[in-house]
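STRUCTURE:
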């Protein structure tokens, strides 16, 4: 229902980049009359205290799969490095032979820990056993483990635990509790492909998984976080065999992937940043630096340091943690592009970590120029950390909708005081002509009392044009805001609607365009603006992931100010569409006057 392709218009592309949660800055936003505070009230067990201050963790996916590193039988497999055995349907014997070449003589766990620490990371989570079932520790429950099967012969988890302890780094364990492609009886998505995998799942749980969970819980010192993954066939009864083991370790933070209805402490959005966080739940976005978790020799699709830094800020501004993955090589080395990026993150964090650690979510729904994190002060006042991604060109940073009295404002990097004044639209801060840091320049703003913020809905750009993006939509009836790429998907019900509030800034004529993927013909919908309606049909593209730019006509808008724009399917023949965005491009002054009018093309 969703899926992917780059879409055509550069204008729309750029505008979407600015408007979506995934890749940075919020859409253009100026005050308009709607009270909007993102709520993140969570009833916290005490084990969450450190976790909620940490904000930044490092994930490590490391195992035998780093030997083939995405290549089997001379063929590069397009999927995830750690899924090679599954994707290439490699037999158990053939896969297990890779262990003989797993000899990480360059493994230096202190180096890993210090790389993380220098980047500002507060905790590490490592794969103790991924879906290939290979235990990276000395396990008595299965000899498919690093000590028994590799020339290296050492317990790398113990070595990492020692290094973490030495450098004051918290350590958590990823454990694939159900999927196991080498220990007989373990689950496999889509079923087994080698007879050696067959067996009783319950026997596997009782004889391999549960004993191994006991080993990782008891043999390596304090465990900060237990990261279950992929709960295939994990019924309530099966999960109930595991939860008592945790009762003896109430200090361990657990995620939501054990299965059997166990919620755990954390939601785990994977490879995306939820547009408005996950109110009422702690959450941790896990994300790769390139496109794979486990090392692949040929994945060079690295995210930029700027994207990673801004993701960290974005996540903190929504009240979550960032668990950023590294996939080390079979030699034990971390790929150079990862080392470079962690250094860049560290350089930014050294100056600005105050805007990340122990902060809570932004009180603003949207800020056109960046993100905000907050800290309540003991004196009842509040510090707002304004991380500016798009530096203002007019020397004024408008904190739209902020009603509090400001007490002080300064650049976090050098402590320079900044002047500010209250305006009808919010607080306006005088800023230097250029940003101090192209990744994000932080302004530390202290306000009196708790944040009192009015509105913050997207507004048209200075030239009048605007883009309605998925992340800004108010949705009803099942349609969902999706990521990778951003789109409104699962729009199967004709009763589902999407609405946007937008502040029109310029009267005139607007051309409407929308990139839409529609499998079949006959998907018609109405766009309602200011009481008037334009009817349009989505061009069939034959594929959920194939988008075509639809020209939906022109409208004349002669009334500036806030308005609501709603898209409603026409029930007849409605199948479903995926909608990337709707762009309203300002064409010039209107021929009409006095209100909205729409011209169909
Ligand atoms: O299948 C795994 C995948 O290999 C990787 O470990 C990620 C990390 O969140 N989790 C699973 C998919 O959800």
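SEQUENCE:
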């Amino acid at each position: 229902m969703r899926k992917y392709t780059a879409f055509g218009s550069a204008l729309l592309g750029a505008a979407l980049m600015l408007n979506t949660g995934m890749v940075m800055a919020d859409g253009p936003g100026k005050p308009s009359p709607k009270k909007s505070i993102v709520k993140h009230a969570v009833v916290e067990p005490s084990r969450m205290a450190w976790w909620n201050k940490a904000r930044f963790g490092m994930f490590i996916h490391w195992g035998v799969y780093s030997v083939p590193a995405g290549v089997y039988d001379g063929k590069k497999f397009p999927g995830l490095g750690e899924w090679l055995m599954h994707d290439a349907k490699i037999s158990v014997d053939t896969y297990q032979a890779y262990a003989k070449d797993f000899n990480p003589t360059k493994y230096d766990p202190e180096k890993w820990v210090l790389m993380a620490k220098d980047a500002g990371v507060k905790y590490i989570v490592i794969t103790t056993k991924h879906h290939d079932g290979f235990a990276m520790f000395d396990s008595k429950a299965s000899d498919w483990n690093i000590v028994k099967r590799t020339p290296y012969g050492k317990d790398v988890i113990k070595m990492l635990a020692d290094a973490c302890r030495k450098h004051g780094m918290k350590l958590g364990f990823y454990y694939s509790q159900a999927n196991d492609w080498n220990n007989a009886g373990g689950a496999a998505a889509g079923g087994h492909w080698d007879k050696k995998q067959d067996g009783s799942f319950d026997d596997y749980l009782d004889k391999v998984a549960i004993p191994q969970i006991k080993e990782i819980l008891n043999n390596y010192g304090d465990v900060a976080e237990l990261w279950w993954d992929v709960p295939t066939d994990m019924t309530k009864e099966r999960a109930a065999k595991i939860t008592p083991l945790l009762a003896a370790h109430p200090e361990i933070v657990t995620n939501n992937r054990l299965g059997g209805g166990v919620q755990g402490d954390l939601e785990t959005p994977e490879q995306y940043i939820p547009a408005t966080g996950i109110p009422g739940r702690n959450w941790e976005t896990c994300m790769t630096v390139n496109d794979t978790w486990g090392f692949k020799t040929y994945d060079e699709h690295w995210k930029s340091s700027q994207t990673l830094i801004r993701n960290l800020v974005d996540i903190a501004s929504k009240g979550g943690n960032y668990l950023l993955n590294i996939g080390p090589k079979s030699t034990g080395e971390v790929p150079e592009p990862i080392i470079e990026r962690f250094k860049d993150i560290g350089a930014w964090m050294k100056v600005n970590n105050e805007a990340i650690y122990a902060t809570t979510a932004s009180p603003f729904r949207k800020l056109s120029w960046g993100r905000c994190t907050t800290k309540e002060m003991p004196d009842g006042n509040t510090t707002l950390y304004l991380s500016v991604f798009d530096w203002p060109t007019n020397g004024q940073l408008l904190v739209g909708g902020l009603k509090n009295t400001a007490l002080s404002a300064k650049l976090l990097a050098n402590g320079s005081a900044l002047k500010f004044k209250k305006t009808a639209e919010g607080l306006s801060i005088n800023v230097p002509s250029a940003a101090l840091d192209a990744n994000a320049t932080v302004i530390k703003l202290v306000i009196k009392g708790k944040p009192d913020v009015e509105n913050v809905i997207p507004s048209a750009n200075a030239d009048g044009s605007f883009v309605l993006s998925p992340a800004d939509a108010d949705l009803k009836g099942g349609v969902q805001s999706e990521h990778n790429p951003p789109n409104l998907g699962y729009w199967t019900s004709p009763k589902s609607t999407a609405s946007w509030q937008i502040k029109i800034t310029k009267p005139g004529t607007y051309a409407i365009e929308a990139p839409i993927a529609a499998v079949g013909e006959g998907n018609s919908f109405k766009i309602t603006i200011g009481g008037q309606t334009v009817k349009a049909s989505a061009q069939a593209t034959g594929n959920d992931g194939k988008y075509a730019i639809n020209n939906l006509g022109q409208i004349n808008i002669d009334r500036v100010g806030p308005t609501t724009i709603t898209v409603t399917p026409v029930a007849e023949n409605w199948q479903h569409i995926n909608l990337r965005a709707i762009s309203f491009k300002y064409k010039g002054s209107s021929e009409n006057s006095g209100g909205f009018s729409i011209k169909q093309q």
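REMARK: Residues 1-42 have pLDDT under 50 and may be disordered.
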